């Protein structure tokens, strides 16, 4: 992948800030592992988090070391903290937490790690994937609705599939995950308020920390919704890794997203989620798009659909996805809602998504929009408290995005598989 900026001064500014943030995160804080504290906000939990903890910061330093712009010592230190306590491989484990998160961090940050270490983690991840697939098969046979944690990127089988794509793309487990996603995309005639109108990924789970919605909802986003499975199906198809019904599933998801595509004065957009009431009304209640973001907004959804269009060789769909992304970036009302530099819902996520999308785009519009996005990321990352660590929700993600854009090395190391944008 070549540099999409073509602006040496901006490259230098991005690279300089990435280096400064990496220096600020050179040494992990001393963990406070209290004997009886196993709560979700304790040091032992944050250590094995890709989102907010040591596992994610190790990826930043590992990528920098592999490109000759960092040292290996911080990689070892952050990985040592990530593995300082027993790793979680039960209900809460997924791509962003626990054994899979540490395995993913080690795969990306230190590909030359001791084979025995990776072998132990591989077996633990395989055990988790097989348990999740077994539970999903039982649920599918019962024609019940899935939980978000069954299929999403953060905790579910989509995220585990993303790790397998990065770690062992030719293995049988990845194909089993893809077969599951194909089934997820099929309609489910469940006996609930939605009837046969709801897609197979309709869930009764609350959306994030919100209260449960009567009748459940369909989540559209990359982090917790159907855009994540779509991106994984598209990325694997692009690499000629397919299972029976693979392309049909991509097409079915895309057609459903077409149904809920809204067109406003500032361009196309999609709702973040749909309730049963909105499903039956055939129209979302939201009057317009929310903030543009990787996790829920138009950037993540547009990139997933762009990848799907490339997999289907559908030039019209690809142009439509790229047009939606460009419009969201050019709308000051939308971009004005972005207030932090993070990958999840901030400027780093927008910049990284746009950079990878621009490299695949059929026109130059996204590449032209990118310099302004990078300047906004620099502005916000430069004024953020240096103590904020973590890859997905912290400064490490902003630094890694700036480093990637400044050096043009995103395809070589493929850290963005963590977000399913490449």
Automatic annotation (TrEMBL):
SMART domains reported in the protein's UniProt record: LANC_like (SM01260)
Family annotation (Gene3D superfamilies): 1.50.10.20
Residues holding Zn(2+): 295, 344-345
InterPro entries: LanC (IPR033889), LANC-like (IPR007822)
Keywords: Metal-binding, Zinc
Gene Ontology terms, MF aspect: metal ion binding
Pfam family, one: LANC_like
Single GO BP term: peptide modification
SUPFAM superfamilies per the UniProt record, alphabetical: LanC-like
Name the UniProt record assigns to this protein: Lanthionine synthetase C-like protein
Native organism: Asanoa hainanensis
